[in-house]
Amino acid sequence: QVQPVESGGGLVQSGGSLRLSCAASGRTFSGYAMGWFRQAPGKEREFVAAIDWSGDSTYYADSVKGRFTISRDNTKSTVYLQMNSLKPEDTAVYYCAADKDRPFINGENYLDATYDYWGQGTQVTVSS
Questions:
Q1: Are 94 and 37 in contact (CB under 8 A)?
Q2: Could you tell me which residues come within 8 angstroms of residue 126 by beta carbon, excluding any fewer than 6 positions away?
Q3: I need a labelling partner for 39 at 20 to 30 A (CA). Which of 22, 45, 56, 93 fits?
Q4: Count of Cβ atoms closer than 10 Å to residue 123 Cβ
């Protein structure tokens, strides 16, 4: 079992950058695909990015492509989300999630039902 814990959120001005971290306890972290999702007030949770078990393959939502970068360090059991050129519409609670059944990028990484373990989230607020 893996328990993700997010950190790194905060308040940033439009155009700024933040790096989120997701530390996941558990010996099997390196075998899981990982994802980042976000939920803005009054909106449904939406997919942001995913990464396969090795870190070699990634997948992004169109809304963040070219601005956000997902990466992982399996020696530290941590996944990162580097967010650049932030916009007010990026304001949301960001969640990290682990998929214990599918280590690779596939056609379902954007679905939150794919993931088995979720963190509590970290707030990101982008001011205009």
A1: yes
A2: 11, 12, 13, 14, 16, 86, 87, 88, 89, 90, 91
A3: 56
A4: 12
